[in-house]
Write a structure and sequence with these properties.
Blueprint (H helix, E strand, L loop, with lengths): L6 H15 L1 H8 L2 E4 L6 E3 L4 E4 L1 H5 L3 H16 L2 H4 L5 H18 L16 E5 L5 E5 L5 H13 L4
Parallel strand pairs: 1-3
Antiparallel strand pairs: 2-3, 4-5
Helix pairs in contact: 1-2, 1-4, 2-4, 4-6, 6-7
Length: about 160
Amino acid sequence: MKYTYTPLERIKKGKSFIQKTSPFFAHLVMNMDVKENKNIPSMGVNFKGNASFNPEWINSLTLEEVQGVLCHEVMHVALTHLVRLGTRDHFLWNVATDLLINYMLLREGFKLPKSALLPDSNGDIELKKPNGQPLHINVKEKVAEQIYDLLKHECDGDDD
């Protein structure tokens, strides 16, 4: 008989694997409180490091992707992204910080869901602006504020 893990067991298993392979990320992830929340589409974290996950979404991921997502969420806290949001547009700030975190995690060898914003190994990614036009961004050697300013500038100019 094949055992099927519950979403919370998958998260605990992901934490355990991170503990064995990545001491830095393990320290952060092991201190993250994680709870089920069927009212969100995927996973999120608050500034205190408390994470919420949609169980169906977690079940759609491989265990390697669960590990990557756990590290992704905890990096928002470690890099104080939620505190640094300030008066910025929440959606654009989240895109900017996701791009930066995902680039960092991919370079560390983590796997992330294919639906995530995934820069290539050079930090390049092609996005679509709200008007449908392509937008090429390179996140290498940038901080979230620089990426945000670029996104904001490009999206504000969509009326052209």
